[in-house]
Amino acid sequence: MPILENIQIKLDFEAVRRRLHLKRDRDLNSVQDLVDTAQPLVEARVLYKVSYIEEKLDDGVVVEGLQFISNVLRKNLEHAERVFPFVITIGKKIGEKLDTCNDLLEKFYLDTIGNVALNQVRLALKGHLKQQYAIEKTAFMAPGSLPNWPIEQQKPLFRLLGDVQASIGVELTDSLLMLPAKSVSGIYFPTETSFFSCQLCPRERCDSRKAKYSLKLAEAYGIKK
Ligand code: SF4
Questions:
Q1: How far is the centre of ligand 1, averaged over its atoms, from the C-alpha of 19 (Å)?
Q2: pTM (2 decimals)?
């Protein structure tokens, strides 16, 4: 099972600034200092697998004997045969730094920087998959990102990926949280049209939103009547 350990990301200061909604003309030195502090703390590790869909159910798919139940995932995999389950982490050092930070604003900034780093690692995996497997376009879904694919589906996902803790140090707790917290799991799949779970998520305030909510798309996926 491929493990990518040598992913080097340079923290994207502009992405951090945008996520923090800070204008370019203000003094950003303290943010730059935090980005510089966070950079050596990022320990990116990725575990993924090349898997094949064995069966397409009405409301989900079966991969290596494990059921993944979600109408949205099922619709997204309508034309797919091969999928790429994954877990990504940036390690625990940024989390440890957050635990010792008493300044609330600094803590918020550092937390956001960690999220940007995690997103950059996910994009690095996406680039790797596209190049390695000659895929033109990909999208991904994460268990728990939509009520239609609940967090409980972390269990079959982790089972599919084997001993994730031994491989890249990410543990799935009994309450289905990942430790280190700055980790993300999901399934990448080939697609012809762009898809972001955010398009089906009506949450109003979310700094991690990647695409606008679309009522029309939610209706097309049958999750908004
Ligand atoms: S809008 Fe936010 S909460 Fe909703 S799916 Fe996107 S990232 Fe998740």
A1: 14
A2: 0.93
Peptide bond into 147 cis (omega under 30): no
* Tokens coding 117: 């780093």
State the closest ligand 1 atom to the C-alpha of 198, by its place in the atom list counted from 1: 6
Q: What gap in Å lies between CA 60 and CA 152, rounded to an integer?
A: 14
| Number of domains within the chain | 1
pLDDT tens track, the chain, 225 positions:
787 777 889 999 999 999 999 999 888 999 999 999 999 999 999 999 999 999 999 999 999 999 999 999 999 999 999 999 999 999 999 999 999 999 999 999 999 999 999 999 999 999 999 999 999 999 999 999 999 999 999 999 999 999 999 999 999 999 999 999 999 999 999 999 899 999 999 998 888 888 999 999 999 998 875
- How many Å apart are CA 113 and CA 83, to the nearest integer? 29
CB within 6 Å of ligand 1 — which residues? Answer: 145, 197-198, 201, 203, 206, 208-209
**What is the residue range of 188's domain?**
3-47+85-195
